[in-house]
Amino acid sequence: MRKTTIFSIMLLFAAFGVFAQTDGPMPMKPEMTEIWDPEVPVIKPGATPLDAPSDAIVLFDGVDIGREWTNGNGGEPGWTVEDGCVTVVKGQGGIKTKRVFEDFQLHIEWRSPSEVVGTSQGRGNSGVFLQERYEVQVLDNYDNRTYRNGQAGSVYKQHAPLVNACKAPGEWQTYDIIYTAPRFNDNGTYFTPPTVTVLHNGVLVQNNVKMRGPTEYIGIPEYSVKKHGPGSISLQDHGNPVSFRNIWIREL
Q: What does 37-66 look like in DSSP terms, one character per residue?
């Protein structure tokens, strides 16, 4: 009797094992996780990483600044265009794009004056404002110390750059900026804050950082958060003759 019981139990476990094996998920095949459609769009990349790809909007081609840009009042920009670049004219105010954007990849090249004048924030100062609110600082920080969250490559007064990648005065420098616009709650607060990644001369200096609010020279960014939609790219007149060229953008 005892042997029969043990044998019956063994048969039961064997049957359960067979059932468990056949009742499991279907064996996977490689093609079951291969997604073919819709096909990824094809674009033509630039000849170099500095050149605009085929799906980019060229915001400044080195010739006509008035085609894509206005001054702060919607009129003609008051900056000078010469030798393929546009240069800040002190007192004329900043310039901004006629088009407005949300999420994007922005390429822009800038140059501080070769003649060094001033120190700290008074030397080669300008800024790239994303949606006219969030500033990536432009500053000559080659052998020129200033507060860490206000130097070149910083998200001004919010995030210091990971490293100082500045070239010498008079040399062209590049910013490649990947920006995700904020989304808002019904009460006007951030549902998701704006985020930005910045490469300065090909070096990562901001790694998908979250902004606390709009850029403020004095005060707390969080207190200035207001719901907004798409906005322009704007370049700052800080009184220094900083030059810009080869500006293009890809909407994401």
A: -SPPPP----SSTTSPPTT-EEEE-SS-GG
Cis peptide, bond prior to residue 194, ω within 30 of zero: no
Q: Is residue 209 scored above 90 in pLDDT?
A: yes
Residue located via tokens 């105010």: 93
- CB neighbours of 15 closer than 8 A, spacing ≥ 6? none
Q: What is the pLDDT of residues 89-121, one digit of tens each?
A: 999 999 999 999 999 999 999 999 988 889 999
Compute the average pLDDT of residues 138-156. 97
Q: What is the DSSP string of 225-242?
A: ------B--EE---SS--
73: Cβ–Cβ under 8 A, 6 or more apart, which residues?
none
Nearest to 129, CA basis, from 64, 66, 175, 185: 175
Strands (E), the chain: 57-60, 69-71, 80-82, 85-87, 95-97, 104-111, 126-130, 134-138, 173-180, 183-184, 190-192, 195-200, 203-210, 234-235, 243-251
Rounded Cα–Cα distance for residues 185 and 227 (Å): 8
> Contact, 57 vs 251, CB < 8 A?
yes
Distance CA 29, CA 107 (A): 42
Q: pLDDT grade, residue 22 (50/70/90)? A: low
Write down the pLDDT at residue 24.
Answer: 82
Note whether 152 and 139 are within 8 A (CB).
yes
Instruction: Summarize the confidence of residues 176-203 as an average pLDDT.
Output: 98
pTM of the complete model: 0.88
Q: How many CB atoms lie within 10 A of CB 139?
A: 27
For residue 178, which phi and psi values (nearest 5 degrees)? -110, 120
